[in-house]
Structure formats: structure tokens, C-alpha cells
Amino acid sequence: MITEMKGRLIHGENNTISVQPYTHPSPETFGAELEELKLWAVSRVDLNSMLLSELDMAPNVELFFNHKCEDISVDGDVAVVNNLTGETRILKSEYVIGADGVHSAVRNAMLRKGRFDLVTRA
């Protein structure tokens, strides 16, 4: 499920491939030397499978597939979702998890509220 990432593959001209190691500046040498950086990747397939298995056993969890979250109430406990046919549902829940990336309706609602410090890193 977890794999160490030692570097990125660089595809060059003439079908050449080289490895560029992940590194960061050494604080002891004020950046004059580079130290190896340990990065780890998690298989999305394995992670999704594990999470769904655990959630399936939880008695108080309801999963909605093929629905798009349109909005949430940050102060309340309401999420507005649409299914594939366009039917709108209003869901009440103590917790809402937004895991659909930078264009997430959950993220956008939190940003509109203005008190959340969300940082995006490339």
C-alpha cells in the first residue's frame, strides 16, 4: 500500500530516462548541500478499498455514490447533493467530508465563511 518515492523520472530526448532524486537543502550547511528527502506514496486503490471496508462496518455511516455535492452549511449540518438524474437531496449530518480536490463544494463553502486557513501546496 505504501511505496517509498526516491525521485521522479525525467523523460528526455531520444527516449532517454533519468532519475532526479528528491532532495532538500541541508539546514546544517545553509543549503549548500542537499540531503535525501523521504517521500511516500499511498496507493489510491488500496486506500479506497480499506476506507470503504471500514465504513461498510460502521453502523452510523451512509455512503452516497454518483452524487455531486453542490453546497454545505458550514455552521449547520446540511449538505446539498445532486444525483446523476439531477435530483436534489438535502442531507443532514454531524460531519461532512470533502475529498474531491481544489474545486470541492465543501472547500468553497469553508472559504466563503472566511475563518478557515486552507493551504494548497503544489
What does it look like?
This protein is of the alpha+beta class and 122 residues long. The chain has 2 helices and 9 strands; from the N terminus they run E-E-E-E-E-E-H-E-E-E-H. It has helices at residues 44-57, 105-113, and strands spanning 2-5, 7-11, 17-21, 23-25, 34-36, 39-42, 67-72, 78-83, 88-92. The protein has a 3-stranded antiparallel beta sheet with strand order 7-8-9. The longest helix has 14 residues, at 44-57. The protein is elongated, with a radius of gyration of 21 Å. The mean pLDDT is 81.
Describe this structure in a few short sentences.
This protein is α+β, with helices and mostly antiparallel strands.
Count of helices?
2
From the helix content, strand content and strand pairing, which structural class follows?
alpha+beta
Widest sheet: strand ordering: 7-8-9
Beta-sheet strand percentage?
25-35%
**N-to-C SSE string, H for helix and E for strand:** EEEEEEHEEEH
Main sheet: strands, sense, barrel: 3 strands, antiparallel
| Euclidean distance between termini CA atoms | 23 Å
On the 0 to 100 scale, the average pLDDT is: 81
Question: Low-confidence parts lasting 5 or more residues at pLDDT below 50?
Answer: none
Shape: elongated
